[in-house]
Amino acid sequence: MVEGAAYSIARNITNGIILQVCDLQKVEAAKKEKKETNKKEKGNRRNEPTYFTMFAAEFLGTALLLFLGCMGCITQVDNPVPSHHMSALAFGFVILLIIQTFGHISGAHLNPAVTIAAVIHRMMNFQMAIAYIAGQFLGATLGFALLKALAPPDYVGDGFCMTLPHEKITSLQAVAIELVITTTLIVVICAVWDKRNAHNTDSTPIRFALVIVGISMAAGPLTGASMNTARTFGPALIYGNFKDQWIYWVAPNTAAVLGCGIYKYLFAISEEETNSEEVHLDEVKQDKC
Description:
There is one protein chain. The radius of gyration is 29 Å and the shape is globular. The chain is an all-alpha fold. The protein has 2 domains: about 1-50; about 50-275, Glycerol uptake facilitator protein (Up-down Bundle), CATH 1.20.1080.10. Helix content is about 75%, strand content about 0%. α4 (about 110-120) runs parallel beside α9 (about 245-265) and α6 runs antiparallel to α7. This is Aquaporin.
């Protein structure tokens, strides 16, 4: 009996030690898991875009758009004076530069109409959109002010780089032209954002730059091919000339809604259809292998 009791006591002690060791291991594993989770959460919070970061990217991008783009519109140094195609190319290549620099940070909207389209697509919240648009207007104004301060006064006289309707077209015609070209731009952007086009983004800066060049070459002589309220507002504010300014507030921002609507109801597909299409393409690739 004594030996049985001693054996039982020893067994209980052993089991207790084993249980305590197991409990300690569980506690250590839980602590380690919690530590890793906290580390991941901190990393995610660090990687989340801040309002200031997005504001700064849009501010600098739009400032460069006006500074370098309008610098490319200076014609006094050339003889003979180049056609408007040169300014279209200048703005296109500057946009290429900006998208390459800031595209992976803020998307390089540079344009309130594009930001409005992003809100409609639920790609950003309203508060972030305000930060974007504030950066765009401030950047456009200060970028153009910097160019005016650095360039020879004779090169940047009154009306330089302003977008105004041609004298031979009416205000309504100008609105219609800006509405059509900005709607075209928004449809192109919606196509870039489409998940079915995700594998074609390697040369987006070049493609988008050429889109801007093409539209600017076509519509530039008639309305200045603004497509961008901030781009028009900057020079207008510096010169204090707000003639026909309303055209470039109404048309581009209306086009943001119109372009999104056209793409959504004519060309977009549901999330489920997108996923099924991706699965189907994967199956085709596997069959080929």
